[in-house]
Write a structure and sequence with these properties.
homodimer, alpha/beta, UDP-N-acetylmuramoyl-L-alanine:D-glutamate ligase, nine-stranded mixed beta sheet, globular
Chain lengths: ~350, ~350
C-alpha cells in the first residue's frame, strides 16, 4: 500500500466510494427468508393461527412454530425484494436496501438478491437478532398463513438508508410491511425526502390489509406528504379509507396521490391518475398454482414500465404479465425468462426488452 | 443422582439405551440439502455442465457454482431420505441413517427428516466438511442438472450405522448414490449383514445410471450377496447388465434378486419376483410439473405396501400413486396428505390407511 500515496490513492478511494450508479428502481423493505411447509386446518387451529393472515412473532415463538412444522422449503422473500427481483428479471437495473444479520440465512438472502445483478450493500448487523424469517403454512386450499419474525430486518434505521443509492435511482419503492418497525418509519421519511430533493419518484405498496389497519394514519400521512405512486389491492384500499365502498375509495385515493395502481385479482387492475381511470385486464393464467407474490410481481412490471416511459395502460399490462408468471408456480420470485415472456405477451408494447 | 443407585439406576440406563423401537423402514443414504435455481442451456454450456446428469463436485467448485446461480430455493433432499419421508407420509414408522455436520444446513436437514416422526440419531460431524448440498440447475424443459458436494455425507462410516435401528426395522433401504463414498460401501455391507442376521429385508435403489456405471461390479456383488428387493428405472437396469436389451436385463435381474421393481416412467412399472412378472400401470397425473423424486416416491409406496403385507401388485400401485403426487409439484417430498390420496386412489387395496 506504500506506493498508493497522494492523489492516486485518493482517486482509488473516490472510485471505490462513488461508483457510477445508474439504477432504475431501488427497493427499501424487509430482508427476509421464507420457510414454507404444508399444513392442514387442524394444525392452524391447534397452534392458534388464523388462516390467510400474517402475524408478527418473536424469536421464541418462531422457533416453537418451526419445531412443529413439516419438511420445509426455503426461499428468499420480502415484498419489495420480490418486486426488485422481478424488475431485474425484466432487464431493469435495481438496488435494494434492507437489514440482514451476518448469519447463514442472511448470506442466502444476499446471494439471492444479488444473483440477478441487484446492488445490495446495506451493512449486515453483527450482533442482535437473527436474519428475518417468515414461517409459512400452506393449507390444501392454497392459502398461506404467515408467521413473521422480523429480527434484524426490523432494526433498519435511517442511517442504513444508502442515500447515494436512493439519489441514483429513478424510483424509490417502499414496502408497507416495514411500517411494523418504528425505526424503519423514520427511514422511509428520510429516504423519501432525499429522493424528492433529487427529483426522483417515490412509490409505496400497502402490503397487507392488517398492516394498513395497524398504521392507517401514518400511511395516510406518508402518502399525502411523499408518495407519487401507490400500489394496493382492493381490500387494502378499502382498509386505508375505512370504507366498504370501492368507488368512494377510488375517488379518495385520486385526491391524495398522483398515480394509484389497484389490483383486482382475476379482474386485472385499475389505474387512477388525475382525472384518468384506466382499466387493465389480467393476463391469461393456465392454472393458479400459488398466488403468493402476485402483487409484488404486478408492481415489478408496472414500475419497470414507468422507467421505460411506457403509457400507464402498458405499465398495467406489464404488471399483469409479470403477475401471471408468478401465479403459475410456487414461490414469489420469477422462474421463467420474464423479458421473453413480456416481449411475447405484449408485441404491441412500445418497450424494447 | 445419588438416589438412583443399584438396580433401579441400571433399569433407567437400559431404558434410555434401548427404547422400544418399532420401525417399518430404515433408510441409509445421503443427508443432503437441495439448492435449486432456474438456468438456461447457455448457462450450462458456459459452466461446463452436461444437462440432466449428476456430477460430484468439491467444496470450491460448489461455492463457485453457487456464486453464479440465480435466486435459489432450498429443500432437504437425498434419495433415500425422500423415500423415508414418503413412507412416513403414508403412515409408516421410519428411521434414517446419514451424516450431517453441526452447521445450519445440517440443522435444516435434521428438522425436515424428523418433522414427520422419523427417528434420526446419526451423530453429526463436529469438524471436517460441511453438510452435503446438491446444486440443481432447472432448465425451461424441466430437466435438472445436478452438482453434488457430498461433504459430511460422504464420510458415513460403518461405525455410524446404528445397528439397533437396523435390527429394529422390518426393511433396511440402501441408496446407491452412497456408493460414491468408499467408507459408505463398507457401511452398506455391515448394515446388510446385521439386517439379515436379524431376519430383516434388505432393499437397494440403483439411484442413477452413471452411478451404476461407476460401481457396476460392486453393485452386482452387493445385490447377489445381500439384496432382497431392488429398485431401478429401466435405464439403470440396462446399465447394470451393460445391455440394450430390456427383456434380457429383466431375465438377468430375475436370477440375482428375489424382487425387482423396475419403473418405466409413464408406462408404470414391472415387478419381477421369481417366476412372476407383474405389470403395474402408472397412476393418472394431471400435469407433470417436475419429475424429481418420482423414483424415490415410487419406492416409498412400494416399501410401505410391503410392510403392510400387500400383494406385489398393490405394492406397485401404491408406488404409482405416491409417484404421481410428487410429479404434480416442484420438489421431491410429499406436499399433500399421501395417506388420504392413497386411500382414495386405491379403494380396493387391502391396506387400512
Amino acid at each position: 500500500m506504500k506506493f498508493r500515496t497522494g492523489s492516486s490513492y485518493t482517486v482509488v478511494i473516490e472510485q471505490a466510494r462513488m461508483p457510477s450508479l445508474d439504477i432504475d428502481v431501488v427497493g427499501i423493505g424487509n430482508a427476509i427468508v421464507d420457510v414454507m411447509a404444508p399444513a392442514n386446518d387442524a394444525f392452524l387451529t391447534h397452534h392458534g393461527m388464523t388462516k390467510g393472515t400474517m402475524t408478527l412473532v418473536d424469536e421464541d415463538r418462531a422457533s416453537a412454530i418451526y419445531s412443529v412444522m413439516g419438511s420445509t422449503v426455503t426461499a428468499s422473500g420480502g415484498s419489495a425484494a420480490n418486486t426488485i427481483a422481478g424488475i431485474a428479471a425484466l432487464g431493469g437495473r435495481t438496488g435494494f436496501i434492507g437489514k440482514i444479520r451476518d448469519d447463514e440465512l442472511g448470506a442466502e438472502f444476499r446471494h439471492d438478491i444479488t444473483a440477478n445483478g441487484t446492488v445490495f450493500r446495506t451493512t449486515p448487523a453483527t450482533d442482535g437478532a437473527a436474519t428475518a424469517r417468515c414461517l409459512i403454512l400452506v393449507t390444501p386450499d392454497s392459502q398461506r398463513t404467515m408467521n413473521t419474525f422480523l429480527g434484524a430486518s426490523g432494526t433498519l434505521a435511517p442511517e442504513d438508508v444508502d442515500m447515494e443509492l436512493v439519489r441514483a435511482a429513478r424510483i424509490v419503492y417502499l414496502e408497507g410491511y416495514l411500517y411494523d418497525a418504528p425505526s424503519a418509519q423514520r427511514a422511509f421519511h428520510s429516504a423519501s425526502e432525499a429522493a424528492h430533493a433529487a427529483r426522483r419518484t417515490v412509490a409505496l405498496t400497502l402490503s397487507d390489509p392488517f398492516c394498513v389497519q395497524r398504521h392507517r394514519a401514518a400511511f395516510l400521512e406518508l402518502i399525502e406528504r411523499h408518495v407519487d405512486v401507490l400500489f394496493a389491492n382492493h381490500i387494502e384500499l378499502l382498509a386505508l379509507f375505512k370504507t366498504e365502498d370501492f368507488d368512494y375509495a377510488l375517488e379518495r385515493v385520486r385526491e391524495i396521490v398522483g398515480i394509484a395502481a389497484i389490483t383486482l385479482g382475476a379482474d386485472g387492475s385499475v389505474v387512477i391518475a388525475g382525472a384518468e381511470t384506466i382499466a387493465v385486464p389480467a393476463a391469461p393464467v393456465e392454472a393458479i398454482v400459488d398466488s403468493t407474490g402476485a402483487g409484488d410481481s404486478y408492481a415489478a412490471g408496472f414500475l419497470f414500465g414507468m422507467t421505460r416511459d411506457a403509457s400507464l395502460y402498458d405499465c398495467g399490462r406489464l404488471g399483469s404479465v409479470a403477475a401471471s408468471e408468478i401465479i403459475g408456480h410456487f414461490g414469489a420470485r420469477p422462474q421463467t425468462d420474464l423479458r421473453a415472456l413480456a416481449a411475447q405477451a405484449l408485441p404491441d408494447c412500445a418497450i424494447t426488452f
